Every structure is written in structure tokens, then in C-alpha cells.
Amino acid sequence: MMKTHPPGAHVGAGFRSLNDNQNGAPQQRTRMDILYFLILILTVLMLAYKRIPLLVAMAIMVGLTVGWTELRHLFYVPSWFRFANGIVAVILIGFSLTPLRRLLISDRLFSVYRKALPALSSTEREALEAGGVWWEAELFSGRPRWRNLLKMPAPAISEREQAFLDGPVEELCRMANDWEICDKHRRLPDRLWDFIREHRMFGMIIPQEYGGLGFSAQAHSAIVMKLASRNLTTAITVMVPNSLGPAELLLHYGTEEQKQHYLPRLAKGEEVPCFALTSEIAGSDAAAMTDTGVVCKGQHEGREVLGFRLNWNKRYITLAPVATVVGLAFRALDPDGLLGDRKDLGITCALIPASTPGVETGKRHMPVGAVFMNGPTRGKDVFIPMEWIIGGQERVGQGWRMLMQSLAAGRAISLPAVGVSGGKMAAMMSGAYARIRKQFDIPIGFFEGIEEPLARIGGRTYRMDAARRLTLVALDRGERPSVLSAILKYQLTEGNRECLNDAMDIHGGKGIITGPRNYLAHDYQALPISITVEGANILTRSMIIFGQGAIRAHPWLLKEMAAVRDPRPEARKAFDKALFGHVGHFLSNLVRSLMLGVSAGLATRSPVSGPTARYYRQITRMSAAFAFTADLVLVMLGGKFKFREKLSGRLADVLIHLYLATTVLKRFEDEDRPQEDLPLVNWALDDSLYTIQQQLLGVLANFPVPGVGRLARWIMFPLGLPYRPPTDVTGKAVARLLLSESDSRERLVEGVYISDQQDASGQVHTAFHLAITATRAESAIRNALNEAVTFDNYERLVQKAVESGVITEEQATTVRLSQQASQAVIEVDEFTRAEIEGYEEPGFRPAVSENVG
Ligand SMILES: Cc1cc2nc3c(=O)[nH]c(=O)nc-3n(C[C@H](O)[C@H](O)[C@H](O)COP(=O)(O)OP(=O)(O)OC[C@H]3O[C@@H](n4cnc5c(N)ncnc54)[C@H](O)[C@@H]3O)c2cc1C
Fold it and tell me: For residue 303, what are the β-bridge partners?
């Protein structure tokens, strides 16, 4: 029972004087009112920050209102404060009563929402729904649960897989001569094809029961990465039958008969597959294909059967010129209603032997920088029986869904492996070359100007590999994260481009002059290939990553969309739940952004201690800021956001770097926190956080509604902009790792082919090691004789230094070998005009060093 007291009878210790003398202390009273105001605001903020469920929050506010009313007898509690607590409680009660909020809000919004939602075609819906959702949902939540991530196992491959990498893959790398393949033969030589077949490399994803290797995604990626570090043509030739194509589709959707027929043949390389989706008209918009198959009856093996009459004109198809079986995507039409009422049955996939009458293959395109088999395929009035449809008649019209599902995982494996391989090669070769190559008597790597690109290569490569490894762990555990796969494809191929651009600059003329001594040029030339295939990068960044991510990974959006599309009456209830869930999510992220901003991230805890703890907090902070901004954009633009690709692209960058930063932190833990890797970790994380900040600012500066961006910026960055690009000190430390022999450098480039031969890359490894070994002796000579050792004077200086006891005979030998090895590395190829212009003999032959390359 509440007691009533006459005014002035309150006896609270700290507030006694105020209560005793209500008129006497107006200033003190104002201060107390401000304090109470802050208590009220903080209580509401904490409820939102901690995401307290509505009912619990309501109970807390009711309890507080009653409590404060009781306590007013003990000390001063302003009546407005109790009243305000009560109002908040009433609002929360209103929101907790589903029938009331439906009547007042959600049922009214239901039809508005339904009208505003853009219609989705079936192909758009299938693309959106393909695959699953994993860590990206945590990033969209604004409150990533780090412990779940840290519980994931470290990447690992089995002994059998490792033996395969060390055996046949190593051997294939040794056999693959980049210059000969690309410039002399302009194709993969037969002995390499035979070796690939013999070791069943076309069957990496095919289970052992069908005669394949049955490797994990981790091993599959490691194999492609190693091959790509030696020769891209070899890597792509091995990669394509193992990525999105006939084997993958058969495994998931094929009939048992199709599996039994094709999988053993594909594994042994008796069949060479290609998969033809792209046509002249339909490039990025592949679902708009005009290649058709009309349901009809025709002759097959002497019988009249139901099937399709196909006409197609596809281009850019890898392996098509040599394929024995063509995987084909076409639009199935049934004008005569032989299969039912529908005339347009949708995209369908079939496997067609290349020898079928009317099929045309054989011609080649010449992709830039690589000579893998690629070309057009055409078909004119080709009749195929229904049993050639992948999965049989019941899969007619499901081709797009099948392709999108396969892409959801496949995109994270092959091209990202090629991308990381490029980064590792750039790191390894640029670090070595910058140590070997001297200008102004100093290895160029010690100039700050070269330190910058070296640091970028090192930091990016560490981060790219971290992303590759963690995503593969998820795939091997059965996840199919379609948005993360798109992120990997986009970001790791872009990262490759950035690393190779920097590597070319560091190498100067050495990178430009082609010939057997050049280990960079082909990869550099071929960069646009991985940028363009499996979803061209601009489209992937601007349309897919955030567009699909927002719908799939957002905790409420898909549920809202599903509810408004559902014609059943109970859909309104589901909509109400999703809508209020969404509102709570938005408000919570608004509050979290503000509180994490005001506390500079300290309001949240890190799951680890030590040098990376602050990064966990900052990523949590930026995750809340991202979730808040994403919702603001979605609320303001509705369905139109998919046409605002500049905003969507920037938000994609934020999501990408939130994910990359996550993977860096996990990698550091997986490798037992090696302290010497901290420069790489810091570079990668500082760069990611800075990119996140700048891209968020870009979104806020271009907000569709004036003023909102400025307000949101104040909420997210109340104390100013917290992140800076990696410092010069960090950059120097990363560059030094690349310029020296260390465990850190080895970890960074682990998994690429390291040539032990006297070929272009083998020479660089030898010279690099010798240059480091000879450093001390060369410094001693320079200090004693006041002259720097160069290719021209080393013999004279070495002799003099030995005679005067400055260096030992052993050191003299090292200096001589180092100088000779370095000289061999910096040499480039020369050709006679006849050789280049091709009128002496067919094919190019280098004028120098037949043993090289
Ligand atoms: C070497 C090579 C091998 C290939 N192998 C195969 C294969 O084996 N099988 C197969 O089926 N296909 C293959 N392809 C085709 C490849 O998938 C396509 O090239 C790719 O889908 C892009 O189509 P496009 O080249 O016609 O470019 P376009 O679709 O014309 O695109 C041109 C540019 O516009 C951008 N763009 C398009 N739409 C949008 C949008 N909405 N928003 C923003 N930007 C947009 C793209 O990102 C790109 O930058 C291969 C291509 C090459 C070059």
C-alpha cells in the first residue's frame, strides 16, 4: 500500500536539504532534474542497446515507475520523471499488445508495403533464395556473436590431400612451363593433359565411389592455388571441370543413371566437359538467354521419344573447343502443350555429347594472357531425348535454381584461389626482387616509395588468404553462404588485380619485357578474365552483394517480404511480428551505434585480450553502424534501392570489409597468435576499418533525403572520425617482412609453387637467399673499402677484402654467387627482329638462355 506524506516530509540522506527547502535551492534542483533526465534516457537506451524483449522492457519500466514513486518519500524524485517512466511503460504496453498494434499500425501498413514491394521474377527470386546464410547474418545483426566464430575449427586438409598436393600437383607445376605453354604452343601440351587425366584431377569434387578424388573444398582450393602460381592455363584447365559445370550439377541433381554413366568418365578424363550458359545477347543477365529447346517427339536410337529440339549460340565457353560433352542451359518451351499447360517452362540444363548431329564446337577464342581452351558452341535443330536433361524430365524448368544453388558455394572456391595465388606470388616475387635489385647502391625495397606498394601487397595478401581459408572451413562444414561466396569472388579477384599492379610497378621494366625470364606478365595480362567470369565484378559489387545480402542476411526483411506476398489471412500476423522485429532491430542499432560511438567502442566487450582486442570492439561498433545505415537506406528507398547501385556498392564495400576483418582476426587466433605477424594483422585491419568508415561516409553524404545523412553521421561518429589508414610504421614493418626470410613470410606465401629449378622464378628464390646471406659481408666491404659492391666491381673488391682480412674466403664465395645470381635475375630476354616478327621460323624462340623457362 502506498504511503502519502505531506510535502517537505521526505528524509532521504543525500536529498534532505533539497526536500527540506524546496524554494531555497533552485540551481541544485535544476541539476537534479538534469540527472533524472539522464537516468531516464540511459534506461531507455540500455533497454534498446541490450535488445531487451518488449514484454520484459515493459515490465522493467512499470517496475521503475512504481519503485520511483515509492522512493520519492526517501529522497527527491521529480513527479515529471515518474510520469515519463509511466509514459514509456504505456507505450511499451501498447507495442506489446499484438491486436492493438495490428489495429493501429501493422494492418494499415500491410497493403502499403505490398504495393511498394517491387515484383520479383522467378529467376530473380531463385537467385535471391539460392544458398544459405552464415556469418554475414551476424554482421547484419549489428551484434556479431564472436564466440560462435572462434569456436569454428582452424582450416585443415587430410593426409591424403596433402600427399596429393606434394606429389602429383607439385609434379604438374614442375612440368608446366609458362612461356612455352603461352607463347610457343599456345595450348596446354598433350603430356600435361595426359598427366591431369592420369591423376584424375578433373574429378576432385567427384566422390571416390564414382572414381573421383572426393576432396574437400579446402584441398580443392589449395590445388587450384598452387597450379595458378605456376601457370594460369593449367590451373583453369583443371579448375573448370571441378567448378560450376556438369559434374557439380550431376552430383546434386542428376538421376542415378546419369551419375553412373558420366561421373566415372568425367573423373578419369575420358569425357571433357564444358558448361555453356553465356550467349551473345545474355551476358551478365544470363537468364535472358534466347537459346531455346522446344518440346517435341524425335528419333533417338531408332525409337520415337519425347525430347527437345534445341537451337543455341553460346560464346566464351571454357573447354568448349575440346569438350566431348556440352552442358547447356536453354529456355524450355512447350508450345504444343506436350508436358502440360505452361508454354514457357523456364531455364533447363542438359548434357549433350559433342558428337550429336547439329552440335558445333572446335573454334577458339584467344583470351588475354592465357591459352586455355575457350570458344563458341552452337547447335542447330539438335534433337535430344528427355533423359539428357540433368535430373530427367522432373527437372525441366529448374535449371536456373540448380545453377544458382551451385554458384552459391562454387564461387568461393576456384576464382578466389586464383586470386590468392596472385597475391602470394606478388608478395613472394616482389619482396625478393626488391631485395635483389639495387638502385643508388641500396636494395629498392628499402626506399619508402617501394615500401608502400610492398606493404599493400603484404597486408592484402594476408587478408585475402584469411578470407579464403575461413570461408572454405564453412563450406566444408556444409554451409552454402551465397553472399559470402560473391564477396570472395569479387574481393579476391580485385585484390589480385591490386597486388599484381603493385608488383608490376615494383619490377619496372623487368615486369614489362616478356620472355621466358618474365614471371609476372601473363598473370598481369590475364587479370580481366577472373574479374569478368562467374559474375562480372562491377555487377557483383553494385547489385548482388548488398542487394542479396540485405534480403537474405537481414534478420527481418525476407520475413516481411514473404508475409506480404502470402495471400493467406494469417500472413498479416506474420507481417506484424516481422515489422515490429524490424523496428526493434532498427532502434537497437541506432542506439548501439550512438553508444558505441560515444564510448569509442568501449561499451562492448572483446572475446579475447591482447593486441587484437580493440579490433573486435571496433568491428562490433561498425557492424551496428552498418546495420543502422542499411536500414535507413532500405526504409528511404524501399524497392528502388536496387537501382541505386552507387549506394549499394558502397554498402557492399562495408559488408565486405566487415567480413574480411573478421577473417583476419580468426586467422590470427587459428595460427596461435604469432606476434611477428602483427604488422600484417594491423595493416589489414586498419585498412579495413578505414575503408568501412570512408564508404559509410560516402553513403551518408549521398543520402536520398537531405539532412538525414548528417544526423546519421553524428549518431555513428559523435566524437569525430576514429579510423586512419595503416601508419607508415606499420607499412614499413610489413615491407620488411617481405624483404627478409622469416616464418612470417613463409606463412604468408604458403601454398604456392616454389621452383627448385633454374627457371625464372627459381633463379629469384636463389638470388634472394644469397642476397640476404651476403649482406653482412657486402656491408663489411663497403665500410672497409668505402665502395659499394656492384656487378662491375665485385671481383676486384672481394679480392681486396679477402687480402686485407675484411671478409673470409667463405664470405667471398657467397658475395660472388650472390652477385652472379642477382645479375641473372635482373636480365631480361632479347629476340632478333626475325624471331619477333616471325619470318625466320614459326613460333618465338628466345635468343638467350635456352635453359631458362
Ligand atoms: C575467358 C572467359 C571464360 C568464360 N567461360 C565461360 C564458361 O565456361 N561458361 C559460360 O557460360 N560463360 C563463360 N564466360 C562468360 C562470362 O560469364 C561472361 O563474360 C560474364 O557473365 C559477363 O558477360 P559479358 O562478357 O557479356 O559482359 P556484359 O554482361 O556485357 O557486362 C559488361 C559490363 O557491364 C557490367 N554490368 C552488367 N550489368 C550490370 C548491372 N546491372 N549493374 C552494374 N554493372 C553491370 C558488368 O559487370 C561488366 O562490367 C566466360 C567469359 C570469359 C571472358
Answer: 300
271 is catalytic: no
Per-residue pLDDT, 841: 54
Q: Where are the beta strands (DSSP E) in 432-495?
A: 438-439, 442-443
pLDDT at 99: 87
For CA atoms 419, 421, 423, 426, give the dihedral sign: negative
pLDDT recorded at residue 846: 52
198 close to 256: Cβ distance less than 8 angstroms? no
d(CA 51, CA 46): 8
Alpha-carbon gap, residue 361 to 355, rounded angstroms: 9
Of residues 695, 395, 651, the one with CA closest to residue 542: 651
Residue 128 three-state SS: helix
pLDDT for the residue 401: 92
Nearest atom within ligand 1 for CA of residue 367: 1
Distance of alpha carbon 636 from alpha carbon 618, whole angstroms: 27
- In the predicted model, residues of the chain with pLDDT beneath 70 are 1-26, 118, 839-853
State how far the Cα of 637 lies from the Cα of 121, in Å rounded to an integer. 20
pTM over 0.90: yes
Q: Is 93 exposed, middle or buried (0-12, 13-18, 19+ CB in 10 A)?
A: middle
Instruction: Kindly state if the Cβ of 277 falls inside 6 Å of ligand 1.
Output: yes
User: Tell me, what's the pLDDT at 842?
Assistant: 52
- 8 Å CB contact between 137 and 555: yes
Predicted pLDDT at 594:
96
Decide if 579 contacts 109 (C-beta within 8 A).
yes
Atom number in ligand 1 closest to CA 536: 47
